[in-house]
């Protein structure tokens, strides 16, 4: 089916998709209104924190729930790749935090400056101390651009530097930088991948695919040298079936893939990038005309400097500790983690948040009622992997790389126009319903 199908076919498909989506997103049955006066503090007012707050007010009094976070704007982060690819306007990914908050809960418009889990307290930046019976941490990721020598988030949009991650303005600046690169008529582009876990692991690949599509539209694709640098050996994506697809497609589209190669420094004025080469232990400096930077990521410093961080294992000192199934902290049972901040396999997508919110909701209520925590997160992650304009793969998978397709009429391993429509038109309404606590 092509992107130019008739409006009638399009409407029929969207109706079918919406119906199937409604079935797949039905929440699990939960306990009735909890008989408790426990105080719940949710730290983080992004997608995870807001969604959970809207669900908890169905079970608890609003005066029992506090939300912590200074961010006034709400960002639809899955749309930032579309902004950076010249397909969406900034306004399409922006709303306000206030419009999504349930009436009656207390919103502390400050960020957390310290966690004291032994005392069951959170300290805010203005010095306020909040006590809690249950704490939920939903703080998202920290973008560590300064771990790349010479790099600063403010450079995005200048000196041929793009990066889709910081926000809609950064995404727009990335679009501007790439247009300037295209207008050169020739040149070298380098797309990078960080060696740390990152939110939306498919975003660097999407940016490469949409950039290739834009270069092909110029009619002079052969004039541009496109490179992709990955820190890993023979890997661009963690799930083998999708990794094989991307490796083959990049090869067919003339992308030079360099593995075991990590961006560690940048000289913006001279447009030079410095890479570490794992295989040889050496470094290499390369010139570029455009570079898409993916920064190393971690939990926010306030988590890393607290007793909530992992003290062992692969996420030691970098991500919040949480059981990968119940999302409960292994040391402090009245603490739960949700979304990107947790150090668990997979999970750093909005789709993961959609699946995790009901898990935390159910387990939090079970904890308050002294019942076993029976709800389990299966690692569900969804990445509508844009492979060109009008086509995408709806990659859905969980722990162990198991494919977890939601829609019987969308293959999880094939490029389709339907998956493109999911990304471009259907996911934002579903995301907004999640924020409202409806799915």
TrEMBL record:
Domain of life: Bacteria
Annotated ranges, domain FAD/NAD(P)-binding: 39-154
InterPro entries from the UniProt entry: FAD/NAD-bd_sf, FAD/NAD-binding_dom, Sulphide_quinone_reductase, TAT_signal
Protein name per the record: Twin-arginine translocation pathway signal protein
